[in-house]
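Pipeline run #58 for the internal structure catalog. This entry was flagged by the ingest filter as a single-chain record with no existing model, so it goes straight to prediction. Upstream metadata was stripped on purpose; only the residue string is passed forward. Reviewer on rotation: M.T. Logging verbosity set to normal.
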Amino acid sequence: MEDNVYVTPSNIKDALVEAGITLLEETGSPDLGLREIARRAGVSHGAPRRWFPTHKALLAAIAAAGLRDLEAELHSDRTDPVEQILAFADAYIDFAVRRPAMFTLMFRHDLLEGSGADLREVSRPLFIRLVTLIERLESDHDATLSAAALWSGLHGIAVLAPTGALGLTVPDFDSRTLIRHMVSTELD
């Protein structure tokens, strides 16, 4: 944190989450230490325990911030439901490629389980948005099942694309082409 920023009791919790986000983005690893987060937030190494009962609770707060960031990026001005689904998919993949460490943490349930935070409450609106878009297609598909299938495929692309793994198996790999193929296959 900058020297001219003073941490007060009213903003310690936010300062810890922001410091955690910065550390996560810098290191690229979800293995974030409480002491380093506290140091970067400009508070004592014991301060995180006052605001977050466990290390996992702080990690969950950082992940929840990432989920809110992703949710904010998923808005589209397009009116056609298929185009909105494609925009959703593009934004999801773009977020994963641009912020891989945050994306990884958001779905590391082994790190976040038992944190006491309700990440489901934060992540569920993302899924509901996809279900709603599919329902607008007025097809015979089960919208929830189709959304789950699309989300699973998107998540697979999001995990594999940044590492170059799909490029090894699919010549001239392009995530947008694969997304469009997946959407048209699932929703036709």
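catalog note: The domain at 76-187 is CATH 1.10.357 (Tetracycline Repressor; domain 2).
catalog note: The two ends are 51 Å apart (CA to CA).
status: ready for reviewer M.T.
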